[in-house]
Amino acid sequence: MMARFPLGPVLLVSLLVLATPARAELPPGAQAIIDAAIATGDDAKVKTALELARTAFPASAEQIDAISAQWGTALAGRKAAEAAEKEKTIRAAGVFDLWTGRVELGGFQSSGNTDSVGISASAGIKRQGIEWSHALRTRVDFQRQNSTTSRQQVLVAYEPRWQFGEDVFAYGLAQFEHDRLQRIAARYQVSGGIGYRIINEDNAKLSVKAGPAYRVSDYLNGPTESRLGGLFGMEFEWLPLERVKLTQSASAVAETGGQATVFIDAANTSIDLSTGLEFKISDRLVSRFAYDVEYDSHPQAGAVATDTMARTSLIYSF
């Protein structure tokens, strides 16, 4: 004797089964595109391929999520291995190892109504360790017009940093300047303080720093002045395109009128502001356009408060 089942529930279950979409496998072409992106090792390309696959094949979302999870695990493992290898290399390196640097050179020459020649040159080296980094930079600007030197500037600076937190660091600074336009024969400055990395991404970086500063200025045909002050600095770089970089750096020093007065009673403030636009020609060669502004609130007699310079140069990295 055959058992009887209610027709209503059986029909309802059948309709639910038919209405539930089956989990579809990714088409071979889509899988091949994702595999090709993974083979490059580029996280951005893999994410793009996975997002396109999710949009085109929503029924394969579970399979795509599984691929994404596997890629994330593999990427994390690779980065951990690279970090461990980098730390091992740094710890085994000598004092003169692991230095990188760049040399920048620009210039101009004109004749006719005026005969002038000018050069702008700078160089910098840096060593990045696990917690400590060291940076040494130099810059020379020289211009001669109608047999008279109209611009002569020299800057040498050394800055060590100690990264004692994920985004917090301590810095030191020792700097020498000579600036004929500002009537400065020699200016010595030391500073130390705390800095913070506000942005630390692959395509954008921003950090600020601040601390007390002590400065000795020896003026041409003038007195020698020693003052205690405060320093604020900012460094910014942004890569809007693969071969284009925008840089911005600023340094401001406010000198107090005495040895122990507060910052708001500053007697003199100087600001150095540099904006640069770099175009990558090759792995080692870069062209750069920069616009620099130097401001001194109380210049010496015969000097102006604000001095600007636009420069075009080539940079070689090593």
Descriptive keywords:
318 residues, alpha+beta, elongated, disordered N terminus
What does this structure look like?
23% of the residues lie in helices and 53% in strands. The protein contains four helices and twelve strands; from the N terminus they run H-H-H-H-E-E-E-E-E-E-E-E-E-E-E-E. It has helices at residues 7-19, 28-40, 43-56, 61-92; strands at residues 99-110, 116-128, 132-145, 148-163, 168-179, 184-200, 204-219, 224-241, 244-256, 266-280, 285-296, 306-317. It is elongated and about 85 Å long.
Topology:
Layout: H1 7-19, H2 28-40, H3 43-56, H4 61-92, E1 99-110, E2 116-128, E3 132-145, E4 148-163, E5 168-179, E6 184-200, E7 204-219, E8 224-241, E9 244-256, E10 266-280, E11 285-296, E12 306-317
Helix pairs in contact: 2-3, 3-4
Biggest sheet: strands side by side, in what order?
A: 1-2-3-4-5-6-7-8-9-10-11-12
Please give the radius of gyration in angstroms.
Answer: 30 Å
Shape: elongated
Order of H and E elements: HHHHEEEEEEEEEEEE
Number of discrete helical segments: 4
Low-confidence stretches: 1-22, 257-265
Distance between the termini: 91 Å
What is the typical, i.e. mean, pLDDT? 82
Number of strands: 12
**Structural class per helix/strand content?**
alpha+beta
Please outline the major beta sheet.
12 strands, antiparallel, barrel
- The percent of residues in helical segments reads 10-25%
**How much strand?**
over 45%
